Automatic annotation (TrEMBL):
Domain of life from the UniProt record: Bacteria
PROSITE patterns, sorted: CYTC
PANTHER family according to UniProt: CBB3-TYPE CYTOCHROME C OXIDASE SUBUNIT FIXP, CYTOCHROME C4
Species, as recorded: Pseudofulvimonas gallinarii
Descriptive protein name: Cytochrome c553
The entry's keywords: Electron transport, Heme, Iron, Metal-binding, Transport
GO MF annotation: an example: metal ion binding
Every Cytochrome c domain range: 48-129
Length: 136
């Protein structure tokens, strides 16, 4: 028998959940949003002229956040990659991936990058002019 409009008070009617949605959304508005990630320094995204015949790899942004677009580090305690030997760079990437170099952020960044893209990154950084020597 269908429920009538004159149902007794003790009968519990299902509450349409969609009516709660606006209240739930508004309740979230008063919360503090998570902290925004730090901005990438301008040096990391500056337009560096590519060496003749070399195009910037499409995965460069992952590396540039710390190592700089041109391989000159923009983050503290980060090595410069500019002018390094291609094979040395590829070996270092392999060591991060297999755990011989134990640094989780590098393993996480390199994990999704295909071998061909890692080679392109090594070519890019090897082709950049080395960082100027720092005198104490």
């Amino acid at each position: 028998m269908p429920a009538s409009r004159d149902a007794p008070e003790h009968v519990v009617r299902p509450y349409p959940c969609w009516r709660l949605l606006p209240w739930l959304l508004l309740a979230g508005c008063g919360q503090t949003p998570p902290e925004a990630p730090a901005e990438i320094p301008e040096a990391a995204v500056s337009a560096t002229p590519a060496p003749a015949g070399t195009r910037a790899p499409h995965q460069l942004g992952l590396c540039a956040a710390c190592h700089g677009r041109d391989g000159i580090a923009v983050a503290a305690n980060t090595p410069n990659l500019a002018g390094r030997d291609r094979d040395e760079l590829l070996a270092a990437m392999a060591e991060y991936l297999d755990g011989r170099r134990d640094y989780a952020p590098m393993r996480a960044m390199l994990g999704p990058i295909r071998p061909a893209d890692r080679e392109a990154l090594a070519d890019w950084f090897a082709a950049q002019p080395p960082a100027p020597a720092v005198t104490p």
